[in-house]
## 1
Amino acid sequence: MIARAVAVLGLGAYLPDRVVTNDDLAQHLDTSDEWIRTRTGIRERHHADASQATSDLALAAARAALDDAGLGPADVDVLIVATTTPDHPVPATAPTVAAGLGLEVAAFDLNAACSGFVYGLDVASRLAEAGATVLLVGAETLTRYVDPDDRSIAVLFGDGAGAVVLRAQEGAEMGPFDLGSDGTDISMLWMRAGGSREPFDPVAHADPSSRIGMRGGDVYRHAVARMTASSRAVLDAAGRDVADVDLMVGHQANLRILAAVAERLGLPEERCQVSVDRHGNTSAASIPLALVDARAQGRLEPGTRLLLTAFGGGLTWGSCLLTWGGR
Ligand code: COA
């Protein structure tokens, strides 16, 4: 079966209170609102405050999704946190979130960078199909990992979390999925130090290697090509055409990337969800945050056919079709 009979029962989001506009950034960076808006479509983003870690954002989104589903923590069998910015290198962030919900269920992190939510949806829907109620959270505090003085990167990212509750449901459709990776050039988008190959030390921490580095132009080209090809792959696998897609909810990295993918697919821009203008790039949190936006805008109805597509460091990419059955 190409689509799994799994539904989104609930959807939730959390965005930190602090909104940072392009003009705010231009006060200490050699940049401008005009440059950022025309190159990326971003107008503002949220920054977590110093007391907040990724798990705090994740927990708030998780609670909102459970409330939305009309479920309680006790209904959850498995908790997955898709993140590339965990609270600590060890342990994973998911057990902290589970503990915040009062749970001792299976809890683990999944890191596929900005593709993490779509990867997580594939894993979670397999578990849900097998009978589990799964809470999947995409949560990031990427602003902690950027060099605030690097204008080419600091303007792009924001913090936030989004969550979904998945359960098997007759008649629901999730999939097919297309996931992929290419690890031959990891330096295209990476943080060099802090892992087993090059651990952190106090001296290294003062070095740019402990901040996110990126070759933006290369990432841009790969993002457009991979998201387009991956979207076509799931449409082909489902025997569907782009005309069958009611709404594309792509990873919200850059408005120009979303527009280029939509154009190549032949999808009218009005069928493309845009949240990057207010969120910036929230990595694994961007798609569930965009889903929450889409619903608030009245764009998600039972039966709405969604194309989710993502791209991130790794490189990683992933897409899936999903017929909205949730509230
Ligand atoms: N404000 C003003 N100028 C800036 C700037 C900023 N925030 N950031 C970079 N610039 C400058 C550069 O220094 C460069 O100046 P130079 O020509 O004097 O060297 C100039 O703007 C052009 O830089 P360039 O990198 O060619 O711009 P671009 O049009 O390619 O846009 C990105 C840069 C990062 C917006 C674009 O490459 C991009 O969106 N890439 C994908 C990034 C992404 O989405 N990553 C996450 C994927 S999950």
Note: The radius of gyration is 18 Å.
## 2
Amino acid sequence: MTVGVVGGGQLGRMLALAGYPLGVDFLFLDPAREAPAGRVAPVVHGAFTDPQLLEWLAGECEVITFDWENISVEALREHASGHEARICPPIAALAAAQDRVSEKRLFERLGIPTTRWRAVGSVSQLERALTEVGLPGMLKTRRMGYDGKGQLRIRTREDAHRAFEALGDVPLIYEEWVPFDCEVSIIGARSVRGETAVYPLSGNVHADGILRLTRAPFGPASWQRAAARHLARCLQHFRYVGVLAVEFFVRNGRLIANEMAPRVHNSGHWTIEGSATSQFENHLRAILGLPLGSTRSLGHSAMINLIGEVPPREQLLAIEGLHLHDYGKQPRTGRKVGHCTLVEDTAAKRDRLARRLLKTLAPGVRFS
Ligand code: AMP
């Protein structure tokens, strides 16, 4: 069985690492010569929109998936479908997640609470959005935003006009600022056969829009139930196949959907060591029509992202129980270059160790 993956980043690399024990082979498509998946699997280099490469990939593989959602829906539809290969997750879910306005409309249609928002395409629409949604807020590009890119916090009307200029001539969305108590995400898989498997909730801490820390299992059973209910609606709506993640703000015990990702997710990296089956393996099982694996936690996990550069390995590996994942990327400010995971017997021990690690890896990042 060969899985074609559009995008050869760290998510693709971890998919391949999870797939080899199952006897699955991989072919990646990525424009970057140094794509992280290239260290562990063959990569064809070319544009994500290249018609010939997409057609070739679809001809070579049983199934096509993606590790990055800012790829062209049109190119996938036109050149990769109609072949033997199935495309999973469904292109409709990818299209909805690519545009923050479609995503908000979807949440509303499915009865999933989300932030108040307005689409902004002109100064007059911006003025109306500020009046109707109120201040403070966030002005975000509708498309292509990730890791805090393409979004600015708005405190005053002047801020909003400056941000409108700075974000450029692209469709925007203005949404209310949520003074959240914490952020959580839920990750689940749905297989070709309609079977589902849902992981325990992850508690996430971001800094400058980038995920820094995830702890799991997280939060009371009522949050888990609410998040799983919202996730199930999305899975059902798309007759989804693969792993889906939905991120929420939590305010006064209420979950407010922020966004969804139709792929394996950074807040699920802890499942590699912290769960009976990782999100990567379950994504593969789901898209290949295999039975899904157990999502039972093996302890209390913490995942810390390594941003910018990977610290000396000796230093990290000297910490008992620490698992290091180095994506093999060149160092660059603000770039996710690796992560490390701890799995402990108790939440208290996990938190103590995570605090100690954060002091050196991400000073200033705190959690309660
Ligand atoms: P996003 O790209 O929308 O996931 O935003 C990245 C991070 O920025 C979120 O995980 C939050 O920490 C923060 N953020 C984004 N939108 C809002 C909002 N409306 N209110 C408060 N924080 C936000």
Note: The pocket of adenosine monophosphate is lined by residues 115, 138, 145, 148, 175, 177-178, 183, 206, 209, 247, 258-259 (CB under 6 Å).
## 3
Amino acid sequence: MEIQLPRGTRDILPNEIETWHFLENKFRSICETYRYSEIRTPIFEHTELFERGVGDSTDIVTKEMYTFQDKKGRSLTLRPEGTAPVVRSFVEHKMFGDVKQPVKLYYNGPMFRYERPQGGRQRQFTQMGIEAIGSDDPSIDAEVISLAMNFFRSIGLENISLIINSLGDKESRLKHREALIAHFEPQIDEFCSDCQARLYKNPLRILDCKTDHEHPLVKSAPSILDFLNEESKEYFAKVKGFLDVIGISYTVDPTLVRGLDYYNHTTFEIMSDEEGFGAKTTLCGGGRYHGLVQEFDGPDTPGIGFGMGVERVLLALEKAQVKIPAAKGLSCYVISAQEEADEKVVQLVNMLRDHGISAEKDYQKRKLKAQLKDADRKQAKYTVIIGEDEIRTGEYSLKNMATGEQFLVTETELITTLEEQAEGDE
Ligand code: HAM
């Protein structure tokens, strides 16, 4: 049987990679502007990291992890998200001792969740994300959100909306938890077995259950915003104030609880409003996580960040029909008019590449006409034909493929012309 891709994964083919590079470069450049540095953590981690970090009553941990035992019987898991690994690394490398606080990090890489694949939902997907660890200043919340919004604007995605909420501090969450238990307890037998198990363990998770999200009790559940204590209310007001100051509009949605356990205070999601995008529209989700550093045995340190699904961003770009600027094309195709010119062609192509000029030649023993056709197919901006005469005189005929113009150039002139043309393209 023909071996095919595992379900929920995909190849990124050469004709798509330009868009990926475009997104990656934009993200890197914006992160640098906001002074975030890149961090790369392993693809797999000890399973316990996610059980303790993401939470053992979340869907991710109970149903979606790719967990395996290595040859020594250790339980390892392909990372389902980036925050727990980054915080682990922050603690392991004692970044809390760094004089430069907060520590601002970004990442870009594959994540793995055993979910039912559909448009915008895969088993291996890519997240670009950031984490700012070491400050509880509400202006960082606005900064993190603004970085994501600026990224979307810079790639030409206009039709998006920001939803924010606050889950409050520990005290507020405890009060809300009690209210949720009292709310669901009398009718909990109408809920799925997962929700029944969550009732006393983590009732907040009932609110984002994929099975019971339409149940009237979910819709009428007590809102966290009614349980925020003064401090949490004030914190949330400041975050909103900073967003207002930098001109970012938002909607407050008290049902936004997020699917991971580590959140408190600010949570947010950025949705694509493109029509026909399908059920899953969240491009980016994040929030604050005070307590996660401590959970991994580091000092009490606040953090905030987001993760963005690159495949979903690509779908949104497609729906919005955003044109990605084309990468630099092929500058020059060097054509061999006869066998005797082959060595000169190899030498010339090599020389152009040494000068950083993209150059191509024929490798299929094509006749002159077929080489011209190949140059056309590869969208070469210029062609040069090398035959015995050219080798003898040291002058080559350079053809601008767009205008059809042709002129004689020496080797040195060939390089300067192509270099100038490349600079003009930048
Ligand atoms: P999350 O909401 O689980 O948060 O994922 C963030 C984003 O990853 C989602 O909004 C979505 O775009 C993308 N995503 C998630 N699952 C899939 C999937 N199966 N297929 C395609 N895309 C997917 C987190 O992962 C947190 N670590 C975010 C964060 C960072 N919070 C604080 N810092």
Note: The mean pLDDT is 94.
